[in-house]
Amino acid sequence: MTNLGLPDPEQLAARILRGERAAVASGLNLLDNRLPAARSRAVRLLACLSGERWLTAGHLIGVTGPPGAGKSSLVSAMIREWRLAGTTVGVLAVDPSSRPELGGGALLGDRIRIKTPAQDEGLFIRSLANRNQLGGVAGEVWPMSWLMLACFDIVVIETVGVGQTEIDIAEIGDTVCYVAQPASGDTIQYLKSGIIEIPDIFAVNKADLGAAARKTASEIGRSAPRQDRREGWDYPVCLLSATMNTGISEFHAHFDRHRRFLVAAGLLARQRSQHQSAWVLRLLKEEFGSFGLELVGGRAAIEKRLGEYRSSQFEEYERMREHILSRLLSVNQPTLSP
Amino acid sequence: MVAPRKNRDQPWLMRTYSGHSSARASNALYRTNLAKGQTGLSVAFDLPTQTGYDADSPLARGEVGKVGVPISSIEDMDQLFDQIPLDQMNTSMTINATAAWLLSLYIGLAQRRGIDPKKLSGTTQNDIIKEYLSRGTYIYPPGPSMRLIADTINYTVKNVPKWNPTNVCSYHLQEAGATPVQELAYALCTAMAVLDRVKASGEVPPEEFPQVVERISFFVNAGIRFIEECCKLRAFGEMWDELTLTRYQVTDPKLRRFRYGVQVNSLGLTEAQPENNVQRIVLEMLAVALSKRARARAIQLPAWNEAMGLPRPWDQQWALRMQQVMAFETDLLEYGDILDGSPVIAAKVSELIAGARREIENVEAQGGIIAAIESGYIKRELVGSHMSRLRAIESGELKIIGVNCFQETAESPLTTGSDGAIMKSDPAAERQQIERLQEHRRQRNDADVRAALQGLGDAAKSGDNIMPSSIRCALAGVTTGEWGDALRAVFGEFRPPTGVDIAIDSREVLGRKDQVTEIRDRVARTGSALGRPLKILVGKPGLDGHSNGAEQVAVKARDVGFEVVYDGIRLTPQQIAQAAQEEGVHVVGLSILSGSHMELVGSVLQELRARDLAALPVVAGGIIPPADAERLLALGVRAIYTPKDFNLNAIMGDIVDVVRENNGLERLGLLS
Ligand code: B12
Ligand SMILES: Nc1nc2c(ncn2[C@@H]2O[C@H](COP(=O)(O)OP(=O)(O)O)[C@@H](O)[C@H]2O)c(=O)[nH]1
Ligand SMILES: [Mg+2]
Known about the structure:
The complex is a heterodimer.
Chain A lengths: L8 H9 L3 H12 L3 H14 L3 H4 L2 E7 L5 H14 L4 E7 L10 E3 L1 H4 L9 E7 L11 H9 L4 E7 L14 E6 L4 H8 L8 E4 L6 H13 L13 E3 L8 H17 L2 H29 L3 H10 L4 H19 L7
Parallel strand pairs in A: 1-5, 1-6, 2-4, 2-5, 6-7, 7-8
Helix pairs in contact in A: 1-2, 1-3, 2-7, 3-13, 11-12, 11-13
Chain B lengths: L12 E3 L1 E2 L4 H13 L5 E3 L3 H4 L23 H7 L9 E4 L5 H14 L8 E4 L4 H7 L6 H18 L3 E2 L2 E3 L1 H5 L4 H22 L7 H7 L1 E4 L5 H21 L13 E4 L12 H14 L8 E3 L12 H17 L13 H23 L3 H6 L2 H19 L33 H15 L2 H17 L3 H11 L3 H12 L21 H18 L4 E5 L8 H12 L3 E4 L6 H11 L3 E6 L4 H14 L7 E5 L3 H10 L3 E3 L6 H15 L10
The complex binds cobalamin, guanosine-5'-diphosphate and magnesium ion (MG).
């Protein structure tokens, strides 16, 4: 295999920061690429993009909920509002893959729901398959969302979650929204499981269905305030309809309000840096195993190191990765080409 | 030689579905067809007219006058019916989202010619539900669309009483893969949705409602399994009779008759050995002609070269002659119902009825057909049925002569002519239509136009019947695009679910299992070699609504391990190129059956180049004549697939190789 066709990360980063769509697309392709040569470049790309901005700028929004609840329709309704206000939006829409023994393919059907007026340069949608990774989110979503954050005001991540394992979304978004399907078993499950702790905003969609939607909203309303996750945040429950376009602007306003809350409480940067180090750890572990982690001092030491470089964790990641690689290479004779 | 009996039944109406290039050219065609003994007209409109765009709209580029006649204003309507007496003609118009408009143009023209609209007879297809499910020329969301249908019914029942304002279609469902039971169930659900909507409008007093029920006619399909199809039509009759009595309390049995027209199945007509299609067409016609009790009122037949492209006048004449031989030479029309009393037929009819009842209950339980369209349920069922059919063809379980068996053939003299044995619409038609339209806009009175459009918008908002203001628009010289846009502004637009997200393991038939396993392995290996799973964009550029091929390619690609992006029909080349870029796909597959492949593929390639994606491989499929395929390959398209490439596994294997080659990997060749 040649490395031909893999882009130069420095140049790519500059183009991404200028908001060039072609560069954003190839950057996302690079972050998705698992070839060793691509990995090094992907890490370089992230390192080139990182900076203070990644802790303070933009807004990362996670939208989760059972299939068919209307996540994509709601995202679409919100995009309309953002675009009217001139805010640019990047979307990562994650759909489930079929099981590996069934070929592992996927139909990525969210674009059609998040319908876009032709030729809107301020909106960029990338669909992804979850590739059977636990938690409903592919590991690739993390770095992709940061890449998008480098050039869009708002980044929305839509993932299917049915209430059991989708902890990952909590480690991605600044603000997490759960979209409930009126009167569905999924929602009841959700309320029972501990995961009700995760969302910051609840949306009960399909208010046009009437009583069922109102009932679900009041059930959630009763459970949501019981949690005492964060002082000063009210965990709003919105009853709305994506198709009838009702309740959207109130719903929409909660996102900005939540972001302001995070900033005021000093949580935005803290949360992001936690999320980033969680991802770096996960990735180092996935690539090199526990043995690899030991080569740079073990989990606790890595966390500490990352904590010291809050605004440049990816540069630190790159250094650790290179260190591990060189240690490994000095043990085995080099077979990898950089 | 035995002389025919005197007391023969009247034959059905004989039509040929036609229209092309321009109103003038189509008018000439209609008049020759009538001279050949055709007894009614069936108008095929071009796609811009069907989707409410003017000929000079950017979305109409390459589509004007291609698959039907462009009608931009009352002047075109006038030319289309030049020297054809409207009060004596029975005119069927295949028009749906813009049905209220085309009917207004027809009524407006009659008024202008001094003909009483009460004397007009004919049909507007006007069934939006099957547009969402199969035919693809929808514009507005379900709610307002159903209202437009109710408006035309309410209006015609009072003012154009001989008109069939809506033709509930199961024809198109079968063309999208529906089984006989699905056809029965969904068509009857549609009819209920329409009648319920009219009832709810309150415009018709209860004692006149039976007249509304009587005006509902159907447009049905008949496939090659002609005994089952014959039973399906008898089942339709029985179920309609019962439903109109129990649900709508129509006591007069005459008003409960199941009236239907037919076009026989085209989905099963083949590109390979196309002469065999003649037998198929005749057998299919038998299904709807055989039993007197369930005989079609009107028949139109496809031509032998259906899968090759548009029919020429001679091809259509041949199809008309099939009907005439059946009606006038055979003794079919001399007998009563020859199937009455057959226990075999009765049992099959009951079986179909039982199946259809179950499915109707199922749909009703989901909140009715509109809800089941919005949720994607019915579309998924249709995609699933079509998938089963194609996989049975692939595996050889379902035999198609000349396609998956008996492929050897002598060279056919039918296909060797210099015209490729198909009709080519006039390449100058688009430019001429645009000039004609622009001239029309200059001639008309702008103040009248503005006032008429204002009235239309007001009616749309207030809920008043849309017909009077539309007829005023027609007379004022409003254009098709202006009418469509005025309502878009009030109603918005709608894209229905694509239905391709069927569960992978919900159907048993996977096609040839061994091949599937082999391709999955190739897809996975190629993905690993390239660093990420193979991703394909299946795109439908232009106004073309033929989604079957794209859907089946998308489902198969998913089943063999691709990550698949498919956003449905009617996208612009820009939207497709933009999606290809944002999604980072390895290959783009375009599907085009409307005949506009040269323009559309060219534009997509250009848009891709404009986005730094010149190296992204593009393949295309659909109705693409061999000479055009050569030209497309020369433009840089990597592979072209047409209906004779029925084996989707083989196509997938080939696409994997296209991707491999594009990335410097060796081709893996044919599947074992
Ligand atoms: C079924 C059908 C319909 C159905 C479509 C249902 C649906 N949702 O798809 C209905 C009844 C709705 C319909 C309507 C019309 N139709 Co029609 N229809 C056909 C028919 C009979 C079969 C097409 C089909 O679905 N085949 C089955 C699929 C699986 O095959 P396929 O699409 O060819 O795909 C195969 C290959 O081509 C290839 N392929 C195709 N696309 C792709 C893409 C990729 C990426 C790849 C890899 C491969 C690939 O792989 C597939 C597997 O073998 C054809 C004639 C024929 N027998 O081919 C006419 C035909 C396509 N229709 C035609 C016309 C004119 C119309 C109308 C426009 C008429 C009108 N004036 O209103 C309407 C309007 C439709 C619209 N909105 O655009 C013409 C087109 C003429 C032309 N090209 O010059 C045809 C050729 C008939 C004719 N001879 O007149 N139609
Ligand atoms: N009745 C109703 N249906 C809705 C509403 N929002 C979305 N839907 C429908 O719910 C289905 C699933 O929507 P989608 O946005 O794709 O859901 P997702 O799977 O959660 O992304 C679609 O058929 C939508 O038309 C709503 O507000 N009311
Ligand atoms: Mg979705």
